[in-house]
Every structure is written in C-alpha cells, then in structure tokens.
Amino acid sequence: MLRVEFLGTGGAITTPRPLCRCRVCEEARRRGIPYSRMGPALYLHGPDLLVDTPEEIKLELERSRVERVGRCIYSHWHPDHVMGRRLFETMNQDWLGRPPESGLTEVYLPEKVARDFRRYLGSWEHLSFLEDVYGVVRLIELAEGEKIETNGFRITPIELAEDGVYAFLVEEGERRALVAPDELKGWDPPEPVRGVDLAVLPKGLAEFDPLTGERHIPEGHPVLKIEATFEETLGIVHRLGARRTVLTHIEEMDGLSYDDLLEVEEKLRGEGMNLTFAYDTLLLDAWEEED
Ligand SMILES: [Zn+2]
Ligand SMILES: [Zn+2]
Predict the structure, then answer these.
(1) For labelling, which of 72, 202, 232, 251 has a CA lying 20 to 30 Å from the CA of 151?
(2) Which residues surround ligand 1, an ion (CB under 5 A)?
(3) Domain 3-285 sits in which CATH superfamily?
(4) If the chain, 291 residues long, is cut into consecutive pieces of 10 residues, what is the mean pLDDT of each piece?
C-alpha cells in the first residue's frame, strides 16, 4: 500500500518567510500547521523513499511518522530541494562505535540530476564526501529510462519539459501515482501517465488571486516566463485526468492562507474537480478516493 506523507508543502519561499510581517506569515507563526509550510519534501511509505531534502528536512522528519529513510531520490538541482543534504550525516553517522556502524541511505539520481549536481551548488561534491568519507550514503545514478523496483513498487523518473527536472511515476500492480515536486512549466502529460489514480503536483504561482480574480503578479513579469501559474497548472490537471489531485509546493508570495485555499478548493469542487491542497504532515493513502 502506498501512503504519501507531505513533509513540507512550501515552495522556494517558506511560510512564514523569515522576518516577514505579512498577514499570511504572521498567521502561520501564531497558529503553526496547517498555516505554516516548510520546504518541499515528501516521503513515500511503502517504497520507503524520501523525495528531496530542503533545509528543514531534519525537522520535517522529526515530526513525521517516518521510521527510517532507506532511500532518497532527487527531482532536480534547485536550492529549495537540495540544501538539507547534511541530513544523511546527522541521521546516519555513528560517532562512537569502534568500528562505527553508520546507517546507509541509498541516494538515487536520475541521469540529468546527476549531471546538474556536478554543475551546481556543490551537491555532487557534498554527496560524494558523505559517501567516501562518512559512508552514510550510497550514490546510484539512474540511466535514462531506468526504474527503481522495491517492496513491490516500481518507480520511474519522468523528465518534465524543463531540462533536468523529473516527476516520478509510482506503480503498485495496476495502481499508479504521479509525484511531481516542482516545475511543470510547458509540460504536456504523456500518455503513460494520464489517468493515474493520484497526482501530486506543484500548485503554480497565483498570477491572479483565485478568489477575487484580481491580478497578483504584474503583467509581463519575468517570473511568468519560467514558472507555471496556477491557471496553467489547472490546465495540466485537466489533461492529466487523475482520479484525484493534490497540490503542494505552495509559495508564500501567493499571499494565500490555508483558509483561503480551502475556499479555492470548494470553488473548484463546485466545478467538478477532485482537487485538494496539501499541508505539512498530511498523510494520505494513495489508492483511496478520499482521506
Ligand atoms: Zn521548488
Ligand atoms: Zn509573508
């Protein structure tokens, strides 16, 4: 049985954003979950697979129902998805044992993620250090088209339209889930992933306030060229045709609180969409209609 735990549902900018005094951040500070959102990561119970390591991953795991992290896979190289790499040292390293009996996490890198890790942010150098010097990870590069088979699950990296960014198709028998941590810009879901039982997708930026319809991001702003908007994401949701869709990677800059998103949810349900917004610590059974 596949269960998806949303460890962190924020985007590149978490909620609260450090020192921000806006309405949404102040509410998140005061009320915590589900109003606050740490960096983007999730855990797949069943395959025992962590997806991405934002800065807050240690804290996210501490408050989670996860019991061990046997495997981790990275979706792409961006800072908000990788900067918690030192997790593997703090979680796995045995300091006192002679000889040390450190834990080991298998870290999977789809081909182009491995390429980009060698280029950006020192990710490859750091992970190699954790492998060679501390022995707390084993790095495994996945060639194009290569899958992970484990515990009765098959996990296939699917490259999105943006070069070097991957989603993951998770299959258990006839059941299928698509997990896309970020970067849907320009993506048209290919046939093999259409009609999945569950889709986990990044929410996309609020170019317009989804409740009032007012423009939120100025027309012609450069961010609109590189990031998918919420409207574009809804188009992808329609084409993908999942039985159920959960949106995550929710940016502070949207200016939308948890309660605002519940209203958006209701509005979209009224239009016949089976769509919800994730919140930190949400745990859902992938093959159920509702949780
Ligand atoms: Zn991101
Ligand atoms: Zn704020």
Answers:
(1) 202
(2) 80, 182
(3) Ribonuclease Z/Hydroxyacylglutathione hydrolase-like (3.60.15.10)
(4) 97 98 98 98 98 98 98 98 98 92 96 98 98 97 96 97 98 97 96 96 96 95 95 97 97 97 96 95 90 52
